[in-house]
Amino acid sequence: MATAMATEVAALRRRNEELEREVGEARAEVERARARARVAEEAEERLCAELGEIEAEGAAAAREYRAHLRALADELALARALLSSSSSAAAAAAMARC
């Protein structure tokens, strides 16, 4: 009977050691997962900040481009007006000579 109890106690101790080892491994894995999650969160924050900066730069570039297009359109309108007025003046001079 004592031998059976001693064997059972020894088996329980071995099982307890196994379980403690498994718990230690599980805790270590959880810590590694937490570390990976922290790294991923920090990377996400950096990417979000970079994306915000890029979006702001893109919006500024679009505003500059629109302003440049407006300036070109104004310049084209002025050139057309000058051509129209000079061709009208030339036509009037030609008519006056006739």
From TrEMBL:
Transmembrane segments: none annotated. It holds the Pfam family LSU. InterPro entries: LSU. Signal peptide: none annotated. Keywords: Coiled coil. GO terms for biological process: cellular oxidant detoxification. Residues 2-57 form a coiled coil. This is Protein RESPONSE TO LOW SULFUR 2-like.
